[in-house]
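Help needed: design a sequence for this.
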């Protein structure tokens, strides 16, 4: 008696427009193992291609390209690129093309920066005077990115990053996503800040939910490996509960630590100190991989980031030429076997 009922139920669900896209995505699960390459240089003749090759050599299967755009302050309604507008776009495409030559899967993450912030203002507080104008600018920007992405066989695109205050405008984001999908055939995600991923009303329009994973781990300048793993275990339980409840695959669109003493306390604070601590950076990476790395419900991560020379005197996020690099390299080798 159950079979006829199930058959009728399926017919009703499909005829009502119910989507199984996220369910099928879960069934075809792929573990994303990637590294972020930010377009940090203000020299638009700068060649990033060697860094792309280094990311491939590291063992990553994915690369995330972070592309930057600007507005003056959190109240501005106009979004602009930097002065080298077309040169910047050309540089952007060059990175994507090199990544494809290296057989890397590519995702793009656009970031809005403030040229004249006041105090501690940042993009999460953007509150434009003219909301219609801001979203008009943003939609045009995303359509251009989507067009470039489609032309270059990009695999995934982030439709927004850490725009916490703007996440409340669900219908506006749905319109942006609709226009992006009209120009791009790959997967879409939204990159939520670590403390604001539960406030998004357009999850059903996405293929993935991304999280910038800068969770505070401990209150200690010298945390034990156990305490780092314990904190990540608690965070993982909360994220997995949200993932299951909302039927949305979750990835970390950013996950990283500076090589500064105390980086585990506030990983988002890249100007906390000038005291180098390579071991704490390494320990934080190892704790994350120990807790998340082989869990079957884990969808993936982009480690932040790969830029510059790195090395033992560098206090920035890059793990290049630091002990953390070997932690990442070893995990990539393990999961690619």
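Sure. Designed sequence:
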């Amino acid at each position: 008696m159950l079979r006829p009922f199930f058959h009728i139920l399926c017919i009703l669900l499909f005829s009502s427009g119910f989507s199984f896209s996220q369910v099928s995505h879960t069934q075809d699960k792929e573990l994303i193992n990637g590294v972020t390459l930010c377009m940090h240089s203000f020299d638009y003749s700068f060649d990033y291609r060697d860094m792309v090759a280094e990311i491939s050599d590291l063992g990553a299967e994915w690369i995330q390209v972070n592309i930057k755009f600007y507005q003056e302050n959190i109240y501005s309604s106009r979004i602009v690129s930097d002065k080298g507008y077309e040169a910047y776009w050309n540089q952007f495409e060059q990175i994507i093309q090199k990544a494809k030559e290296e057989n890397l899967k590519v995702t793009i993450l656009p970031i809005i920066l403030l040229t004249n912030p006041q105090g501690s203002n940042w993009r999460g507080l953007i509150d434009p005077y003219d909301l219609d104008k801001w979203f008009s600018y943003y939609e045009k920007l995303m359509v251009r990115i989507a067009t470039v992405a489609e032309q270059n066989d990009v695999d995934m695109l982030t439709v927004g990053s850490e725009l916490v205050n703007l996440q409340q405008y669900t219908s506006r984001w749905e319109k942006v996503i609709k226009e992006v999908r009209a120009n791009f055939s790959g997967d879409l995600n939204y990159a939520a800040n670590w403390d604001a991923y539960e406030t998004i009303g357009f999850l059903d329009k996405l293929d993935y939910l991304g999280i910038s994973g800068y969770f505070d781990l401990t209150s200690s300048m010298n945390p034990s490996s156990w305490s780092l793993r314990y904190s990540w275990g608690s965070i993982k339980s909360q994220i997995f509960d949200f993932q299951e409840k909302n039927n949305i695959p979750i990835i970390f669109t950013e996950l990283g630590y500076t090589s500064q003493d105390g980086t585990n306390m506030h990983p988002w604070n890249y100007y906390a100190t000038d005291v180098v601590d390579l071991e704490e950076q390494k320990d934080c990476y190892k704790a994350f991989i120990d807790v998340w790395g082989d869990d079957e419900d884990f969808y993936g991560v982009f480690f932040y980031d790969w830029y510059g020379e790195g090395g033992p005197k560098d206090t920035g996020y890059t793990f290049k030429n630091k002990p953390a690099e070997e932690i990442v390299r070893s995990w990539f080798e393990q999961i690619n076997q």
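The longest helix spans residues 225-246.
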